[in-house]
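User: structure tokens for this one?
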Amino acid sequence: QVQLVESGGGLVQAGGSLRLSCAASGDTVSIYRVGWIRQAPGKERQFVAEIYRTTSATTYAAFAKGRFTISSDNAKNTVYLQMIGLKPEDTAVYYCAADRGNMKYDYWGQGTQVTVST
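Assistant:
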């Protein structure tokens, strides 16, 4: 089992920055990749970025490229999402999720709210 806890969300003005954290516990050595996925009110979940645990390779959604950076500190079992140049359309609940090699996100955190005001 893997437990994930997100933190770092909040209210920020457009153009501002936030850094989200995803702390993993439990069977962390089994984690193959960790992703950030967001869900805005009334919309479906949307992939943001992901990072592979052993290689640190990353993938980003088109809207995230150049503004968001995903990184990890394996010693702390924590994955970060640094977001700059935030826009009102980035308002959403941001979830981190872990894949243990099944090529699907099996474990999810509770989410952290990000609200970007105009």
